[in-house]
């Protein structure tokens, strides 16, 4: 029976693959520009791997405006509006609406109410092919979804709209608009939310109440390790005397494992088991290890370890190589801190890679609960590298290692689940206060 099932499965996979090849072979014939080529290759590759993969245009002398389909520019819808009258009218609106003048730094747009919803039209867009009054996006009447036209006039439909207070709009995590006129006062809750989640890549700490402290870690990139360590060190005394701790890693899409080392002592209750991985040894891949051995963000101990790893990999070219004698490493600390007693970690689908590795470690603690939504699911194939195509037009980003967790503890495409699911009736802006009340009550 199993043999029959295996044969049927292989035939199905073969049929699907052939169908996919035919589909994209037909599509690629009509592609004439770099963006069109990049789009087809990216979509084709995503069939095989959804996370920890990238394919982008990097050619230095490439000017997107020179190759945009002129027909698309000509056919782009126009919003008929007298801008001078529009500007005078919005300055008289006392109650906040979406109508107003907004900007993301590249596009200055006006938003006006129309029959179809809220039309975002171009006011000014220097160094692009966009011209005044062209329709940039259309937000539907319930203000939840939008159709958005990208820089090259390609259309993205049904993009999620997140209205943040009175003066910020996030469309599809692509277009972040700040209101220019007229602006309105936000509540303290909104101000805090913006301060926590939209303050760039700098770590942030705050005492929320006598029982709860909060720390925001927006990224685990190696370049940010020093400032993460500094933020934790500067506030460790407060953390160690506070009953509850909220660690906010929403939209933190990873970086380097060493960047979260200083958080582990606060959540530690019992030995933490970490399943190892194997590196694919090739001359190109191994050069990364050599570079890490000279990276000043690491101390001498880490640099030496990377140098030894480089030598081991070079002695085993063409193989998957484990850099440790142990498939599973067990981390033991000398003590369990009495405070914080309870730790909540805020997570969402913006979490991937190293952040998911951190969550797997944190979940083993008796102190920790995860609050939010499922993560992205990009961890099995890891340790990212990039390489430029022979013609110099594109850059490929790919993973150099695979986890021993596969297939028993699959994360990719399955994601890490929260212990407490925060459904849509609890807005992103309310998460922190909602979780604080749960911990304190």
Automatic annotation (TrEMBL):
Signal sequence region: none
GO cellular component terms listed in the entry, alphabetical order: outer membrane-bounded periplasmic space
Pfam families: Peptidase_S41
Chain ranges of the Tail specific protease domain: 211-421
InterPro entries with a match to the protein in the record: ClpP/crotonase-like_dom_sf, Tail-specific_protease
Gene Ontology molecular function, alphabetical: endopeptidase activity; serine-type peptidase activity
Top-rank taxon: Bacteria
Swiss-Prot/TrEMBL GO biological process terms: proteolysis; signal transduction
UniProt-listed PANTHER family: CARBOXY-TERMINAL PROCESSING PROTEASE CTPA, TAIL-SPECIFIC PROTEASE
Name of the protein described by the UniProt record: Peptidase S41
